[in-house]
Amino acid sequence: MAPKSESAEAIVLNFVNEQNRPLNSQNVADSLQKFNLKKAAIQKALDTLADSGKISFKEYGKQKIYLARQDQFDIPNSEELNHMKEENAKLQQQLEDQKRAISEVEGEIKILQSNLTLEQIRDKEVKLRKEVMEMENKLVKLRGGVTLVRPEERKAIEKMYSEQTSQWRRRKRIFKDLWDAITENSPKDLKEFKEELGIEYDEDVGVSLQSFSDLPQHSKKRARGQ
Predict the structure, then answer these.
(1) Tens digits of per-residue pLDDT, 9-44?
(2) Where is the Homologous-pairing protein 2 winged helix domain positioned along the sequence (predicted)?
(3) Domain with 63 in it: what CATH number?
(4) Among candidates 77, 49, 79, 76, which has minimal Cα distance to 64?
(5) I need a surface site. Which of 9, 31, 43, 199 has the fewest CB within 10 A?
(6) Each residue of 51-90: pLDDT tens digit?
(7) Start-to-end Cα distance in the chain
(8) Taking a C-beta distance cutoff of 8 angstroms, is the pair 56, 67 a contact?
(9) Following DSSP, what letter does each residue of 3-45 receive, concatenated?
(10) What pLDDT score does 221 carry?
(11) Which of 71, 39, 76, 34 has the alpha carbon at shortest distance from 55?
(12) Which of 21, 28, 32, 24 is nearest to 68 (CA)?
């Protein structure tokens, strides 16, 4: 049994020295589970090490707290501490530089992953070529005077156009009747009276109802000619 006890003591001593912080038996048992040591064996090893002066301990009520002996460690002086701080600052800077470099590389990887593969580029090229060909065919038809509007769309547009010109003609007739009634016995010059009221005829603004009414007929003749 002695060799096993010494082995447990060596493992526990090494762990306590490496940690160099206050520990209780449960802390040590949890951390040394990989060695298959029972808590009772660890408690015995801790007590033996404490009794032999290899580790320090303090009692807080029923609980014992164990700690590595501090006299075995080299305590740096102020100059050494300053040097260590400087080295630590350098290492921290190097760590930040490495993190930044890793972040940049990860960003480049994401960009590369977001780019299209060769196969995707070829598929897109085929699709674009097809779209260009369709547009060129439409352009050829337009240059040749071929109308690309569907018959039902053309019919709906012509109907709406006819309704609008009919409204125009009706309002023009209503205005003429009212104007004739107002000016029939008026002593004023009709041109001056019209300017005074701010009235403008179609001809004053360069439009003609007749020319707009003739547009659908010209369009039908052109369609039959094609």
Answers:
(1) 999 999 999 999 999 999 999 999 988 889 999 999
(2) 8-68
(3) 1.10.10.10
(4) 49
(5) 199
(6) 999 999 999 888 899 999 988 877 777 887 788 888 888 8
(7) 114
(8) yes
(9) HHHHHHHHHHHHHHHHH-S-B-HHHHHHHTGGGT--HHHHHHH
(10) 53
(11) 71
(12) 21
Instruction: Count CB neighbours of 37 within 10 A.
Output: 18
Q: Which amino acid is at 2?
A: A
Task: Output the six-digit token pair for 76.
Answer: 């740096």
Q: Is residue 129 part of a domain?
A: no
Confidence of residue 124 (pLDDT cuts 50, 70, 90): confident
**Cα gap 56→10, rounded to integer Å:** 15
Domain count, the chain: 2
pTM across the whole model: 0.36
What are residue 71's phi and psi, to 5 degrees?
A: -75, -10
- The per-residue pLDDT for 4 is 47
In a domain, residue 62? The reply is yes
Classify residue 224: in a domain, yes or no: no
Token digits of residue 129? 């070529």
